[in-house]
Amino acid sequence: MNKKLIDDYKKFLDNGKTERECVVQIAKMAEEIGYKDINSVESLKPGDKVYIKKMDKAIALFNIGTENIENGMNILGAHIDSPRLDAKQKPLYENDNIVYMNTHYYGGIKKYQWTTIPLAIHGIVCKKDGTKINIVIGEDENDPVFCISDILPHLAQSQMQNKASEFITGEDLDLIFGSKVPEKEEKSKKKEKNSAKKIILELLKDKYKIEEDDFLSSELEIVPAGKARDLGLDRSFILAYGQDDRSCAFTSVAALLENQAEKRTCCCLCVDKEEIGSVGATGMASNLFENMVAEVISRCQNYSELVLRRCLANSYMLSSDVNAAYDPMNANLFDKENSSVLGGGVAFQKFTGSRGKSGASDANPEFIAKLRNQMDNANVVYQMAELGKVDQGGGGTIAYHAAKYGMNVIDAGVAVLSMHAPWEITSKEDICQIYECYKAFLKIDN
User: Fold this and answer.
1) Residue whose C-alpha is closest to residue 104's, from 89, 117, 94, 119
2) Would 414 disulfide with which of 125, 345, 360, 430, CB 3.0-4.6 Å?
3) Gap between the Cα atoms of 120 and 67, Å rounded
């Protein structure tokens, strides 16, 4: 087992609980081995290494090969966003001496899983004068943490009659942010309105220089507090937040940084917003990637729209994303023979989507055969898998957004148990195998 890889991976998870934090880490890792910001480069030649950032929430690394980029690239494409809670733009309110932070959940979560666990706040507050204030509260052992309360069992008779999706509503996912000891009512004195909230606002102003109106231009993400941990007496698993999809993002980046492009240009793309449909300027459904590739082409040769289209259509891509691990405790949800198991190596998914392959990118068998040959030659352990039984549900990745360019693409990642829960489970062996898979893929030639 590659102990350094596992240790580095856990550190990446600890320091990258938001997209912005991931981009900072990836850019730093790349710069340490000679990658340059493309804005500092006027031309590119074989062997050059550059990165492109978008709004500090998406990043692509390019390692230029000797072959004309028009002939295509080998691309590892992952996403760095994960399910979480986001603070609303007017988040703070007081209710009977307790101050709450109002949130809006992001991505597919089981809302009840987010109650009564320690939570941290990560993000950025942008002030009108252009100042950016980075916020991390709840990760240092001396920090306070935050929490969403739940009803005690003694009074939960009505709640327990509800469906799991109704145990707690989205509007009730509000953090306990602070409080004030209730004062005795005095007839001669009028109780000060919002006194607990005022105390909290004073603390924010004193410690972080944040006024209440500054929340209007903030991006605060609420995530589980705490570090990635070894799971199991034999330490064979990793328990951590955000392993969908940072397990694949980290190993994709690590594989590219280990690689030296030969003929084909190699690329690692880490995008945002996959958990909500790849929307927005930093999501794969936008023109984000083709704009990045256009910038690279313009520095390699005379740019034309046709060269860009040919480059994308001739490329190979692994959609570096996770798959649902077979769960023995819920075996009825899976077709066991077509499921990925923890410790079973790389999980290739020919198609994702839901039910009748809705929203899927169905990989071509010729491409799969090429991958099988490459993996076997590199002694990579892999498995072919689907996400649960046919009519049970399903899910999507960025694969079909890449396929629209005409390139060959297939999903390749690790199996995850308790996917989309605040704490997810992966196998250390799978992390090591996917790293080797990504390295082998980058060596594929035409």
Assistant:
1) 89
2) 430
3) 47
CA atoms within 13 A on the CB side of 295: 19
Tell me the whole-structure pTM to 2 decimals.
Answer: 0.94
Q: What CA dihedral angle connects 245, 271, 84 and 90, to 10 degrees?
A: 170
The number of residues in the chain equals 446
DSSP, collapsed to helix, strand or coil, labels residue 364 as: coil
β-strand 49-54 against 36-37: which pairing, if any? parallel
Cα–Cα dist 122/100, whole Å: 17
Cβ contact 253:26 at 8 Å: yes
The tokens for 236 are 């064979």
Instruction: Indicate the DSSP class of residue 445.
Output: -
For the segment 366-382, what is each residue's pLDDT rounded down to a tens digit? Answer: 999 999 999 999 999 99
Positions of E strands within 225-381: 229-231, 237-240, 265-271, 316-319, 323-324, 346-349, 353-354
Provide the CB-side half-sphere exposure for 165 (13 A, CA): 1
Give phi and psi for 56, each to the nearest 5: 60, 15
Q: Which residue has the tokens 């709640």?
A: 159
Q: For 61-92, how does the pLDDT look when each residue is reduced to its tens digit (9 = 90+)?
A: 999 999 999 999 999 999 999 999 999 999 99
- Token duo for residue 438: 């990504």
- Is the per-residue pLDDT at 151 higher than 70? yes
Strand order in the sheet with 237-240: 229-231, 237-240, 424-427
Characterize the bridge pairing of strands 316-319 and 408-413. Answer: parallel
Measured distance CA(405)–CA(75) in Å, rounded: 13
How far apart are the C-alpha atoms of 77 and 411, rounded to whole Å?
9
Bridge partners of residue 231, in order along the sequence: 237
**Distances 317 to 229, 292, 367, 379 between C-alpha atoms, Å:** 31, 16, 10, 20
Q: With a cut of 90, say whether residue 165 has pLDDT above it.
A: no
Q: How far apart are CA 47 and CA 259, in angstroms?
A: 11
| 3-state percent breakdown (helix, strand, coil) of the chain, nearest 5 | 35, 25, 40
Map residue 181 onto helix, strand or coil.
Answer: coil
119-126 and 73-79 as β-strands: parallel, antiparallel, unpaired? unpaired
In the block, tokens 């990560």 appear at: 122
From the list 335, 314, 296, the residue with the least C-alpha distance to 402 is: 314
